[in-house]
Amino acid sequence: MEKIVLDFTDRRILAVLQQDATVPIAEIADRVGLSQTPCWKRIKRLEREGVIESRVAILNRDRLGLGVTVIVAIRTAQHTDDWLQAFAEGVARIPEVVEFYRMSGEIDYLLKIVARDIADYDRIYRKLTKVAPLHDVSSSFAMQEIKSTTALPLFD
Fold first, then answer.
1. Can you give the pTM of this predicted structure?
2. Which of 22, 34, 53, 90 gives 131 a disulfide partner, CB atoms 3.0 to 4.6 angstroms apart?
3. CB half-sphere exposure, 25, CA atoms < 13 A
């Protein structure tokens, strides 16, 4: 995928939207020094080019009773395309898995899972181990969230 070249104004627009995607166009335009129409056109271009993938609400996990965050390291003895497809499709059906990565090094896959409590995680773990044959599953429970953001660095 080709990298998109952004100017300073594009980056300022994106910075505003990363903090609050509900900010009205008029306010965004004012903050970045544009009139509304050029600002709106830039946002539409950024959406069309795939820089802005979506606009979402970020929910508070604790307020929703999802106070346990688990980082799960998985190793497998199988590395075929068919196995990966089955595993990826199975993991995609587990809504509590909020991040899923294929890794280099000793760990093959890394998952971030949110759960209500340890018993709830055990339910999710049992579901996960039925998805595909796994060699080793190691779970680490986050004791404290020190930094968590969806905002990407935009300025050098």
1. 0.89
2. 90
3. 10
